[in-house]
């Protein structure tokens, strides 16, 4: 079986166009991400209690990091499961 070259790949995909995903609008400030704000934090947790990744939440990296810390703090203080 012959190897695929980069040129072959470019020729095959030249007709396809990739579309950017629209970024969700964030309707809260970074100060609202607090461990005491459990109503907001529950939007980013599944029914099993897993934290949703950035791919699904669409949050910027600093927001995602603060959100995960807030969820973990809320769990330790037994505000969330």
Q: Residue-averaged pLDDT, rounded?
A: 84
Helix-and-strand structural type: mainly alpha
DSSP helical segment count: 4
**Succession of helices and strands:** HHHH
Question: What's the story with the biggest beta sheet?
Answer: none
Distance between the termini: 53 Å
Shape: elongated
Q: β content, as a range?
A: under 5%
Compute the CA-based radius of gyration. Answer: 20 Å
How many E-type strands? Answer: 0
Low-confidence runs of at least 5 consecutive residues: none
Question: Helical amount among residues, as a percent range?
Answer: 25-40%
Features:
81 residues; mainly alpha; 40% helix
Can you tell me about this structure?
The protein has 81 residues and is an all-alpha fold. The protein has four helices and no strands. The chain has helices at 6-13, 38-41, 54-57, 61-76. The radius of gyration is 20 Å and the shape is elongated. The relative contact order is 0.15.
Concise structural overview:
With 81 residues, the chain is mainly alpha-helical. The protein contains 4 helices and no strands.
Note the topology:
Blueprint: H1 6-13, H2 38-41, H3 54-57, H4 61-76
């Amino acid at each position: 079986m012959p190897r695929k070259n980069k040129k072959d790949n470019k020729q095959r995909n030249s007709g396809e166009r990739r579309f950017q995903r629209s970024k969700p609008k964030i309707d809260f400030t970074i100060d609202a991400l607090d461990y005491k704000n459990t109503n907001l934090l529950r939007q980013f947790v599944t029914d099993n209690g897993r934290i949703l990744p950035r791919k699904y939440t669409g949050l910027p990296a600093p927001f995602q990091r603060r959100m995960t810390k807030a969820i973990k703090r809320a769990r330790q203080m037994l505000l969330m499961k």
